[in-house]
Every structure is written in structure tokens, then in C-alpha cells.
Design a protein that fits this description.
Chain lengths: 191, 191
């Protein structure tokens, strides 16, 4: 059973494009739905969607209000429930402060990437850490081609990439979130 | 290491809607991308996208040709590689025949559902089966609110639902595919 606080963040800046330049990506509608549903299913304490542009956050607000108070809430109450844990913030700095306030502890920032890093932490070790009460973690995923090097370098912990089978490793961020939450949070006996 | 043949199918008919009526669902663009990328990453032998309507299969063909031969192929060759294992077929019956031809063995049909079923097979047992050479499996996912009861009843094996944490279990089919392929195919030591 998880005892530590765990929040998930999806960053749209600073992230890389395919030429490995630092960019701000646009919000993808299905990221919001799929990740909110996975975060609710695995009972993450909160899903923080990070975008520096107010117009993009406003767009997400409109989508959310349809599912929380508009036609979508009556059509699909499960979706409304998934979105209760979604919060819109501008940056990773805001997210850290928000989690500190919400959990009462300064969170350790855990970043994810498809590329291997030295001194990364494995899934068994991260599961063990999440069973210790009192600490707080912010698990960060990047859109586009992944989080910018400055975010990776400033993190407290780097989670090992999802080692799949061969050398091809191009999962969507939606798939990566689902797999990582399953590895960290579902009952090992049921897997 | 997997020794059995393993194919993945995404069915759009017969599936359920939220009122549990049997329907034919429309193709969702990101299902094609996310599931093809996951199938390639976990080295599934083929991803069979099943739709009874020729117009929907034609739409998918046009999307694929952009990524395989059009502008998308130059922009993102990884995506083109993911789509090499995608095949369009009309029905589950066609999929069985196709897998029989491709793998040389009549496949056992393994169905998935978010609901629990009696006599379902666990992940450890399914991993063990995939290590036995000579057999062939067709792992079937339903869009919408899941596969119709007739498909569940006719299957050779029912895979246990993804037991997450609590009672809320509303993952997208994209997330469910990612988690199930990870549970069945990634190296347990790396998880």
C-alpha cells in the first residue's frame, strides 16, 4: 500500500521536439482524458497539467467544464470523477509549490524519460519509497520528445526508462504514464 | 523470452456502448498510433485493426499511407516502422484465419475486459504460456465499453482485468493495451 503522497505532472514546457530543440508543445485532448482516467484508476493524489500559456490552460478549462458541469457530466459521470483530480498550473515551479501546500511536504521531483540516465532509480526501489509515510513525490512526464535536459538535471530522482523488449522504444506519453503507474502502484500479486 | 506467436486485435464490432447495447464504434485516430507504437515497442507479431465497414478501413488506409509513404514517413520514420505491423481486417473471424496463415497455427483467442469473469487466466500464467513454442495467441481488445458478451463467451481464454487500486477502473483502451503488453512481455527483472 502506498503511504507517501504522489502527484503526477504532465509538462508542455520546457520539452524537446524531434530535433531536440527546447519548445512549448500544444495540449493534446486525449492526454487529458487518458492520463486523468489512469491517475484516478491508480489513485494518484493529483494530476497537474502544466502549460505556460494562459490560452492553452483556458482551452483545457473549457474541455473540463463540459465534462464536469456540461453535457458530458450527465453523459459520462465516470469522466467527471476522473477530472476531479486534475489541476491546471503554469510551470514545474508552480507544481512544486502546489504539491508542498497540498501534501504538507516539499516534494521530491521524479522525472521520466525514454532515454537511459546514469544513477537512475528502478521500479522496485521507487515502489519501496512510496510505501514510506511522510514523504511526497511529484512524478513528471514530458510531452513532445521528452523533458528538456535542464529539467532532467535539476530533478531529485530519474526513473529508469521502460525497458521493453528490443531497441525500439517510442511509446506515447499516454502509454508511458499507464505503464509506469501500473508498475508503481498496482498490487504485485495481481500482475 | 516469448516463444509463442502473439498477435493483438482491436475490435470495433461487436462492442458495447455505455448502455451495454451492441454497436459498431468508429475508429479513433490515436488508437491507431498509440497501439501500433506499443505493439512495435513490445514486439508483438502483428496489430490487427478490425472494422466491418469498408469506409472506415479506407480512412485508416489513408492515415497509414501518409505515415508510411507521404510526408509523415520523412517527418517521423519511427512511426512508419510502428505501422509496418498493422493490418486491416473486417472481423474477428478474418483475424483468426489471418493469424492461422501468418503463424502456421490456429490461434487461441484471448479476450480482455475491465469486468471480472469466472475462470479467467492471470498474468503470470499467460506469461508462462507465451514462453512455450509452437502455439499462437490472438489477444483481443474492444473499443467503446468493451467486447460484446458473445465474443467473451466464444473466446478460448479470458485475461484477468487490470486490478488497479480501488473500485474505479475506467482506463482507455490505449492505456489498457500498454499495461497488458508490459505485464505480459517486458522483462520482469526490469519492472
Amino acid at each position: 500500500m502506498r503511504a507517501a503522497a504522489l502527484y503526477l505532472a504532465l509538462a508542455h514546457h520546457p520539452v524537446l521536439n524531434k530535433r531536440l530543440e527546447v519548445i512549448t508543445s500544444s495540449v493534446t485532448n486525449l492526454d487529458i482524458h487518458d492520463i486523468a482516467r489512469a491517475a484516478r484508476t491508480f489513485e494518484v493524489d493529483g494530476f497537474l497539467l502544466l502549460h505556460p500559456l494562459p490560452a492553452q490552460r483556458e482551452l483545457v478549462m473549457r474541455i473540463l467544464s463540459y465534462w464536469q458541469r456540461g453535457g458530458g457530466a450527465a453523459y459520462n459521470p465516470d469522466r467527471s470523477e476522473a477530472f476531479e483530480r486534475l489541476h491546471l498550473l503554469a510551470s514545474l515551479e508552480e507544481a512544486r509549490a502546489w504539491v508542498r501546500e497540498a501534501s504538507g511536504a516539499d516534494p521530491l521531483v521524479v522525472v521520466t524519460d525514454a532515454r537511459p540516465y546514469p544513477n537512475s532509480i528502478g521500479y522496485a526501489e521507487m515502489r519501496r519509497r512510496l510505501q514510506e509515510p511522510g514523504s511526497s513525490y511529484l512524478l513528471v512526464f514530458g510531452t513532445g520528445w521528452g523533458l528538456a535536459p535542464e529539467v532532467m538535471a535539476a530533478a531529485d530522482l530519474v526513473l529508469e526508462p521502460i525497458a521493453a523488449v528490443g531497441t525500439y522504444n517510442h511509446l506515447s506519453v499516454r502509454s508511458a504514464v499507464a505503464i509506469i503507474l501500473d508498475r508503481l502502484l498496482s498490487d504485485p500479486a495481481s500482475r
